[in-house]
Each structure stands twice: as C-alpha cells, then as structure tokens.
Amino acid sequence: MKGTVSLYRYLFRTIILIIFGGVLLGVSIGFIIDLQGKLFWLNTIGITVGGVIIGSIITILNFKRFIMPMKDIINGVNQMAAGDLSSKINVEKVGELKPIAIAMNEMANQWKNLIHKITQVSNQVTDQSNELSAITEQNYQSIDEITKVVHEVAFGSEKQVMKITDTYQSVNDISEGIGQITGSIQSISEMTKSTNDKAVDGNQVVQAGMEQMKSLEEKVTYTSNIVKSFDEKSQEIGKIITMITDISQQTNLLSLNASIEAARAGEHGRGFAVVAGEVRKLAEQSAKASEDISKLIQEIQDEAGQAVTAIEEGKASFDQSYSLVGGTGKTFNEIVNKIQEVSHEFQDVSATMQQMHAGFKDMIDLAKEVVEVSDSSSAKSQQIAALTEEQNASTEEISASASQLNALAFDLQEMIQKFKV
Hints:
The chain has 421 residues and is an all-alpha fold. It has 5 helices and no strands.
C-alpha cells in the first residue's frame, strides 16, 4: 500500500546498517585485544555475521509489530481524511500501535461529536434567525406604541419631579436626625468605654487588696500559732514553778528539822545549824521567787489567752472581710462584663446608625440625581422620539442580517452533510 514499507526493503536497510556497525565493532575489538592475521578477520566476520543474524530476527519482529499494523492505521486515517468518521480502527490487530489506534478512534469520536454539535448549532441558528425576523416585524408595531408612551412619560415626569423633590427634603431631614443620634451614641460609647476602664482599674485594686489580705491572713495565722505556742509553754513553765515551790517547801521543812536536830546536838551541831538556817532562808527565797514567778506566769497566761481570743476574733472578722472583698471582686467582674456587653451593643448600634446615615446620604444623592434626571426626561423624550425613527432603520438592517444569517446556516448544513457520521 502507498505510504508503507515492504519487509524486504525494511530488512535490506537494516542489514546494511548492521553490517557497517558489525565491521566497525569487530575491527575495534580486534585492535583492543590485539588480534593478528586470520584471528583478526575471523573475529570481525563472526561479529558481523552474528550481528546480521540477530539484527535480521529483531528487524522481522519489529516489522510485524510496528510496520505491518501501520497499514490499518493509515487506512483509518485516509477514511477520516475522506470524511468517513463512522469507521473504526480495530485496536486488536495493530499490536504495539494500540495506543495510536485508540487515540485515532477517540479523535474520530471527538470529530463526530463536533459535527453533531455544529449541526445542532446550525439548526439553532436557523431557528433563531427565523425568530429574529418575526421579532423585527413585531418591532415595527411596537415603535409606534413607544412613541405614544414617550409623550405620556414626559407629562408624568413633571409630576414625578415634584414628588421626588418633597421626598428629597424628607430624606435630608431624616439623615440630619440620624447624624445627631449617631453623634450621641458615639459620645455614650466613649463614656461607656471610660466607665469600663475605671471598673477594670477598680477590679485590679480589689484583686491587689485581696492578695494583700491573703498575705495578712497568713501572717495573722502565723502570729496566732506563735501566741498559742507561747501560752502552752507558759503553762509548762507554771507546772515547773509549782514543782519548784513544792521542792522549796520540802527544803524549808527539811532545814527546820535539821535546825532542831542541830539544837539537840548542842555545841557540835552549831555549824550544821548555821547551814540549815541558810538553807531555810534560800528555801524561803526560792518559795517567794516561785510565788512571784507563778503570779507573773499567771498574768502572762491570762494576757496570752486574751491575745489568742482577740486574734481568733480578729481572724474571724478578717475571714468575713476577705469574703466580702471577694464578693466585691466578683461584683466588679460582673460589672466589667456587663459594661463590656453594653459597650459592644453601643458599638453595634453606632455602626448600624453610621451605615443608615451613609445609606441615607446615598439616598439623598440618588434622589438628587433622580430629580436631575426627571428634569431632563421631558427634553430627552423628544430625543427618544427621534431615536425611534432610527430604530426603524436599525430594525430593517437587523432583518437583512437575519436573512444573511439564515443563508450562512444553510451553507453550513450543506458542508456538514459531506461528513459520514
């Protein structure tokens, strides 16, 4: 087939290249391994013959795998070029060229879809051109009615100008009122923000006071523990003083007995009597000192008990005050939260009022533009009447264009019919 290569021609071209490559390879190897004489030529001929045999086998296989299936692909392409899009390339017969066959079939499908789409579009163009012709006929009748309506619009626009002018003044007054309200809301919002800042400062002061009171509570508790410990130790000292008093009384009694025994002993017991007297004096002094210390310890215990009672009462009052301050802190937190909520609400209201104010400004500008447009609408109505005449001429041109479009659609359909889908 025209455009394809025969097996013998393809094999001949390949063998020529293989012989040239085999000789070149054999000579190169001979020089590399230093072959001489007959071995050199046998090596060259052997490599060349082996290359020819292997190359021939590979060439025949490649011819069957690639060149022979190319005939079917070329046939399919020629049919597509002739306008026959209904034929398909058998992808099972083309072997390794299957991806190409699939792509060609897909391209044919795409062309078929395109032809169908063009056919639909041309039909739609024909229908639309017919509808356009009908619309132009209706447009002739509508233009006369439009001319009458234009005159009525000119008369009605004068009344509309008066009403819009009144509306413009009312909207302007409302806009000024909203501007004043917006200013008041912004002032209130700033006052709310200032109040919130002060409430936050008060809350911080309360929190600092609570921290100081907590530190003071720890110190009061520590002092109470020290006073209690002091009271307990003073009681232990009282017990020791009582023991000392008992010992001094016993010592006094023993010294008295010793004096009596010394008197009985006469001259020999005089020295012992002196010692017994000194011991009795020391016992009496110890008893008196113990009594004084006991009184002092009792006074200290009384004062320590009063101090413990006062500290406990003060701690109870402190706990109550701390609880009240904590409640005040919670109240401040609630106040701050409420003020922040109110501030957010005022901000939202302020933003809304600003939007309304901007909207009313836009309405004022729009109303002003409408007044200006309405003022000029009467004059423009005359221009519209003139434009209706131009519209008649344009309608005639549209009708002619619709006829040309219909003819082009007919020509396109004739061209599409040449394709077989």
